[in-house]
Amino acid sequence: MDYDRLNSPNTSAISLEVMGHRLHISQDPNSKHLGTTVWDASMVFVKFLEKNSRKGRFCPSKLKGKRVIELGAGCGLAGFGMTLLGCDVTTTDQVEVLPLLMRNVERNRSWISQSNSDTDTIGSITVAELDWGNKEHIKAVEPPFDYIIGTDVIYSEHLLQPLMETITALSGPKTKILLGYEIRSATVHEKMMEMWKSNFIVKTVSKSKMDVKYQHPNIHLYMMDLKAPLIPEVEATDDNGNDDEEVVSNLGEDEDNGLKSESCSGSSPEAKSGSLDDWEIRRCGAMAARLLKDVKL
């Protein structure tokens, strides 16, 4: 495919069909704030959701009523993708961006409700102010959430720490984190991945799972989970530092997304021989930590 930009920031609006609904998203080409542009990663994200909504974890029947928060929403396109799948979305950004975001939410919410006779299949979407790291803003949106999403929210190194702290504060034990991101700086990307792998289990979505038209070689989608606490005696890492990053090519219901999933019960040959590989050690350690979490000694 031709790797031209999917959207021009010089127009005042874009029109995009997502899951049978025509979304009209306004943007401000005269604004100096980056949040007033529909960036390509958000388009890749919603078309990815659309392509994978027939079955698996992104099927509307699985997402109905799930609480979602969008960070750095900008014009709000990614949040609408989750809303159309039945989620209850809180879409957030800095106060300077909120007027445009609220206008997009109100306009498209009205159009969707008028054009869709079965409104029970559509989730809700609301707008809130959230500066990353602001404890009052975080408390006001009432975490934890089932899903945390964001697209093109990282473009500078100074944003990495407050974003990670905010994601952690908004998360619960079962929170799924979905981020779309375009690599613009190799240095920022390397630091971002290093920080993410230290705190999350990071899985990269395969290009084959993305829409054929709406993808770009520099745009990546990541699915992440908070790391479970490990018992120090069994903590282990891979020598190449890539132990927590996998490529997701199967988006089924199982939590391992088609990855290796052996039992820790001792039924495997390795367990019977008393020798566990690194993956099994980490998995057993995480399970032990969860079992011991509520035990008071």
Automatic annotation (TrEMBL):
It comes from the Eukaryota. InterPro entries: Methyltransf_16, SAM-dependent_MTases_sf. Residues 235-275 are annotated as: Disordered. This is Tumor protein. Coiled coil: none annotated. Residues 235-256 have a biased composition (Acidic residues). Residues 260-270 have a biased composition (Polar residues). GO terms for molecular function: protein methyltransferase activity. The gene is LOC100280961.
